Amino acid sequence: TTQHTKIIFDMELQLFGINHKTSKLSERELFIINDSNQDNFINFFQGEFGDLIESFCALSTCNRTEVYFFGHPGLAISIAQKTLEFLGSSDSVKQGLYFFDGDEAVEHMCCVASGLDSQVLGEQEILGQFKKSLETYTKLGVLNGQLQRLSEEIISIAKAARTETKIGFNPLSVSGLSLKIVQEIFENPAKQKLTIVGAGQMAISVIENFYNNGIKNIHAVNRSRRLLEINDSFSLVTNHLSRLGTFIQTTDILVTSVNSPLP
Question: How far is the C-alpha of 231 from the C-alpha of 149, rounded, in Å?
Fold first, then answer.
């Protein structure tokens, strides 16, 4: 019991990741932990490092992927290397990695959750994405103990930062900015037809934002057919990319969110 207690107290918060400041989009796409590989990632992480860590979770958004864990000091570099190997990421991704531990890790997580570390300062989506990630890993039974308690405190800090300061006074997230432009152009945006090209997280964010602001005539076009569950009251099935020409002729607003070497 004494030895076990000592191990717990020797553990500290550590994190590693890449973001829009340290890497290109093509590199970030090689280091993603989402619904498609989340279960495999959890099995890998528990299998490889279960005896060395108390708790862990991961956050992946359009602009970042980060892994947070409570473990023995000095583990982050070796864990990051094995994680990149597990994901099949290239050496170029390794060059963009950053590492934080202790108080610096706490400060970084607070900046991420509040939107201070975002590409668009103070953007709205990140706090929801941060909370959803924590809820997911908690339900899966791998986020608990010290990391869970600390994460709850970080969410409270981020909420306070957004409530008590003007960081979100003029939020210009990508989805928010596109909606703002549409509202400036059209006298009655709710009457317009919207077509989204793409079906990734950014496209879903745009659709949800437009839908919540009264634009209901929405269609999506994608390389493959997918069901997009936007929220509890709205979902849609994407149309094949071959139909893009037809949709362009009748749409009022076209938003593209796809990987392409050309505009």
Answer: 28
Q: Minimum mean pLDDT among 43-52, 129-138, 177-186: which range? A: 177-186
As a whole number of angstroms, the distance between CA 123 and CA 109 comes to 15
Q: What is the pLDDT of residue 105?
A: 97
Q: Which two tokens stand for residue 82?
A: 């094995």
Name the packing angle between helices 76-87 and 38-49 (round to 10°). Answer: 140
pTM for this predicted structure = 0.68
Burial of 233 (0-12, 13-18, 19+ CB in 10 A): exposed
Give the closest residue to 84 by CA, choosing from 52, 45, 50, 53: 45
Q: Angle, nearest 10°, between helix axes 145-164 and 125-139?
A: 160
Q: Residue 202: in which H helix or E strand, if any?
A: helix 201-212
Contact 44, 51 (CB under 8 A): no
